[in-house]
Amino acid sequence: MTLKGQVAIVTGGGRGIGAGIARSLTALGTTTIICGRRRDRLEQTVRELNCEAMVCDVSDWNSVNQLASRVKDTFGRLDILVNNAGIGGFGGPLHTMPLENWDALFNTNLRGVFYTVRAFAPLMISGGGGHIINISSIAGKNPLPNGAAYAASKWGLNGLSYSIAEELRGHNMRVSVVCPGSTNTELSPHEGKNPNKMLQPDDVGHVVAMLVTQAPQSFASEVIIRPTQKP
Asked: 7-225 domain in CATH 3.40.50.720?
């Protein structure tokens, strides 16, 4: 199946899961835009893929709004929005967490998704619909000692995703949340785990490709993906 002519955005697309998702979407024929805070990280992926790079800080409304204006002016549409940008927080028990770390984590992991949906959903609706895919975590389903704030941000992201799915389904928009287990990226500590047994970024990209190529009469509201063997 080809999605040639469709436009996709992947936040946090310069490395890790975001780059894996960009690879899958580009292989389907989409015009793929990767965005992130650091242009050097984005350029590494651009050299590998035939995709566009735009600098954007999802925790900054003005930055997201400017990105939306650029996309509208350049492409006139958006069909797929993948909210992948996120930061980790695994530094110990919640009662020792610096206050500024809480704010930074929630501003990216949850507020940033609100900003992108607020900025891009109207464009997608006016174009006839599309897909919003939010990359959460298995930590949004299970307790995570010493990562309580990160888990809370992902539980919040799951609730946000289920709710906006109901708000937007009447506009021919499908909203899904993907919850990967242990994935071989730089985001979280993996001491003692075998990286070869962990999920790889392209595994998550494969799930996103499945979601955006579903038959039009259905959508998967949530996908949990785990390694076959415990790493």
From this structure: yes
